Amino acid sequence: MKLVSRLILAIMLILAAGILILGPKPDENVPPGRIVVDYWEKWSGIEGAQMQQIVDWFNETVGREKNIFVRYLAIAQVDRKTLTATAAGVPPDIAGLWQRDLVSMASRNALTPLDEFAREHGIDQSAYKPVFWKMCSHDGRLYSLVSTPATMALHFNRRAMLQSADQLRAAGVDPFQAPRSIAEFDRWAEALDLRDERGNIRRAGYVPMEPGWYISLTPYWFGGRLWDPARGEFYFTDPRTIQAFEWIQSYPRRLGKAALADFSSAAGGFGTPNSPFIAGTVGGVLQGPWMGNYTFNLRPAMSEWVVPKSIELFLPRAARQFNYEWAVEAFPSVDPVSLPDVTFADADLLMIPQGARHPRQAFEFIAFLQRQDVMERLNSLHCKPSPLSRVSDDFIRRHPNPYIAVHERLARSSNAWPQIASPIQAEIGAELELAVQQVYLLEKTPAQALAELTDRARGKYQRFVERQSLRGRMAPRAVTAVGGQP
Amino acid sequence: MKDRRLNLLLVHLALLLISAGFALPFLWMVSTSLKPLDAVAPTTLEGHSSLSLIPDPVVWTNYLDVIHNRRMDFPLYTRNTLLIAVLAVIGNTLTSALCAYGFAKIRFKGRGLLFAVMLATMMIPFPVVMVSIFSIFRWIGDHTPLQMLGTFRPLWLPAWFGSAFSIFLLRQFFLTLPDELCEAARIDGCSEAGIFFRIMLPLARPALAVVALFTFMGVWNDFLGPLVYLQRPEQFTLALGLHTFQSQHGGTQWNLLMAASVLVILPVIVLFFLTQRTFIQGIATTGMKG
Amino acid sequence: MTSRDRAQLMKGLAFTSPWLIGFLGLTIIPCALSLYYSFCDYSVLEPPVWIGLENYRELLIDPEFYRTLRNTAYYALLTIPAGLMVSLGLALLLNAPIKGQAIYRTVIFLPSLVPAVATAMVWMWLFNARLGLINTALRTIGLETELRFTLVNRILEALNIAPLRPLPFPPAWLSDPRTAMLALALMSLWGVGHTVVIYLAGLQDIPRDLYEAAEIDGAGPVRRLFNVTLPMLSPVIFFNLVMAIIGTLQVFAIPFIMTGGGPLRATYLYTQYLYEKAFMYQQMGYASAMAWIQLLIILALTGIAFGTSRRWVHYQGR
């Protein structure tokens, strides 16, 4: 026994030594003489590899011409890494971060303003869909440009609607179309509910927490606004915000808290074939354009209702949509006439931190990405719309998401709202999430939860203002283009 | 005699039950690593009324997918992790032993205070010192020829200054060795270094094995250090690589993640199994008498 | 100071110099800086501005500070005693001279090796309210009921405190605010491998003749445990207690992945709050103040442990 274990140990040692001496080595393949631009991005999985293609493209073309080499690092928790490195004065030249980082970093002078560079490259707001241009600015200055945008829309299950066509008709809802108003949506959702004999939900028309990523922004669909940058005020007790939270609470009230908890625990995680929308256990979800890829990867049958994918691609675009069990429309708002095409517009943003060594060269890459062909290639890969106002027919026709036209329409909508652009959004987001939980678990009435939320948010904002004034900065300021709020 | 045998049987039974409980999550990991993606999460659809421990069908190819993965260069990451681990283990074991000997066997003024300060450093939460430590590495890189950021050095060099935990552990060990041993050697004209290397280190072998193993495990599973200090994908370690199986909006490929995790910890399990005897005797002789 | 003293000092410093250099070069500056930052407004992105005791004043009126402190205390009370006892029991079992010892020991140690992401995910599935293995098993053996806390509620009623709401059993574990912390504590027992190994070590160290003497005196296994094993092991128990205090109060990674502090912040732990303040809300000054308060708490607790140790920790041969 002892001999055997010695032997195994020896083998392990030899193996380890072998790997160390003869194994692969990390070699750097930066072409000599090029200026290296370090680009850190949040995507650790497949999205990261897709961006690599674009980086390679740049390095082979514009980069070669202008003597720039983009060194690309896709890594988890990039915000933490960027923050640490920026604090130590050695930030990357480009950081791919989120909307909430922009205001929080810009208001602390941690980002390089890009107005000058943009002007040199002839990049201005005329080339963009308004919401995606506005979200890149803070306090009247441009701090970032979009890499991949997304708009959130109602994804609904047409097969479920056909199965429950009678119930839908009985509820006064067209079984062949997406509901257009919140009231109609509620009837639609209720008609799609199916329960088993024990009262467990087998299929729910709609579950607010599935997946629940954008639930705290529900007031947008009720015409509410959440934050006024000019006055530094949160609108959490606005009647429309309260109405939105009451609507959220109506779901656990109607379906039953216990039944919903049970439903959630039986739901597979997102990105697995058992996640409720893909498994068909929920009628509709508020989701983004990547669903085009995920539905096909995880459950191809959903996207091959009539003919196989290979044949479908030869069909005219209008006919293609009949091949899908699922469809996409704007998530219904409280009043479709005065408030059409409401969406939450999210985006991954490219920024140049203060202290970056090669900001000019970094912007060369960002500008390269803003070229229509490059932008369309990247966003086809990521299954997302384009932030640019001009979109080629080819992009729409060849896009992996058959409903990309809906997303394009939503992205152009005047009711497309970005993330709340408060300078303390990470904190406010956590507080909002708590309020949603309190409402969803029926712990508090919406009015109560939102009143408390307002108190907390005011306190935190007040603190921010005080701390800013320590540095001689006044807030709130008269702001022109923060976050695109009305 | 019969009584004793019954006792042993009971102990066996108890251990068997408990081990089953302890092994269960690990077995689950292994089982998940062998499942197709649509069987990894709970579902009520199509007959899976609950999660099953036994994968059906068994998807061995998950392991091949992990090893031959365009995004996670398994052999390279193994090599990187191993390199850091080896350097850290050698450094930490050697210098911790040196310091522990100083704290245990040499009476000098301020020793107690110094020791207390060392223990206190274990109580400072890492998040509040991380940025400063990072800045120090940057400063070293800027003011000495030793480049730090973007190299493996910040991950193994600190180990060469010992760690509070290891020093504490080894000090306890040295304390149990009789002082007469050193005194006799000193009278024989042996230098302090001679005593340390020729008498203490050989006697401390088991305890050194403990420190080495703990250090190895720490480096092997470290996520934060590599995240912050490494700057190129070719430098990634295994722990960083595990995140390849998660995506921004796409959730996680749990079966592949679990397969990769199994591969990552397997060598450590074997190592523990083979060395556990030394390991346990090692701490045993330290005798916590301090 | 005599020359001999000086020589000793030089020798001592020489041997401890690696740690000293590391301490002076890498540890003391960040620690001192964090103390300084705790008196500053500091976002890490801009230079700190001195604000005196403002952060500490704010801490005193911060409800989340008290909430996370309370949660952490609850978690520590649940895990430290249970963890110490379970690991001691396991060590006693694993110390028995039986076949397959190496395998048992490895299995018990196994969970300490599993990466945090994998651990968290496996436990989330095990705790799944409807389909998880734990609840499925509990239901299969017929344990399906509702806890009404009748007795407790009668007492609470007498004390004019709101009664407890009935709790379904098996509970929803992580998704119920009332059981989430309990679930995390249960899970933490799975990671006692390190402690077991240290106990095991202590057990090897107890001289055999003490047991023999006790046996001759007619002591049964229970008395041997209480009169020989536990007293002889008390230094190790003490060591593990101190380590558990230091470790448990800084716990963060796995609960963070599993619950993110929810539901309803029922599992929001001190170190998570500190981490969020430091890296997500860019309030490093505030986080530093939290860190120093945490340090004081840990110091006080270890101090108490050291203070009482004289009464129950028996050092051999003294």
Series of H and E elements of chain B: HHHHHHHHHHHHEEH
Separation, N- and C-terminal Cα atoms of chain B: 39 Å
Largest sheet of chain A: 6 strands, mixed
Global geometry of chain B: flat
Strand adjacency order, main sheet of chain B: 1-2
Portion of residues within helices of chain B: 55-70%
How many strand units of chain B?
2
Global structural class of chain B: mainly alpha
Keyword list:
heterotrimer; B: 290 residues; mainly alpha; two-stranded antiparallel ribbon; 13 helices; 2 strands; C: two-stranded antiparallel sheet; 14 helices
Protein described:
The complex is a heterotrimer of chains A (486), B (290) and C (318). Chain A has 486 residues and is α/β, with parallel strands linked by helices. Helix content of chain A is 45%, strand content 14%. Chain A has 22 helices and 15 strands. In chain A, the strands form four sheets. In chain A, strands 1, 2, 3, 6, 14 and 15 form a six-stranded mixed beta sheet that branches. The termini of chain A are far apart. With 290 residues, chain B is mostly helical. Helices cover 68% and strands 1% of the residues of chain B. Chain B has 13 helices and two strands, in the order ααααααααααααββα. In chain B, strands 1-2 form a two-stranded antiparallel sheet. In chain B, a hairpin with a 3-residue loop joins strand 1 (246-247) and strand 2 (251-252). Residues 45-49 and 286-290 of chain B have low confidence and may be disordered. Chain C is mainly alpha-helical and 318 residues long. Chain C has a two-stranded antiparallel sheet with strand order 1-2. A two-stranded antiparallel ribbon of chain C has the order 3-4. In chain C, strand 1 and strand 2 form a beta hairpin. The radius of gyration of chain C is 24 Å and the shape is globular. The model of chain C has no long low-confidence stretch (mean pLDDT 87). Chains in contact: A-B, A-C, B-C.
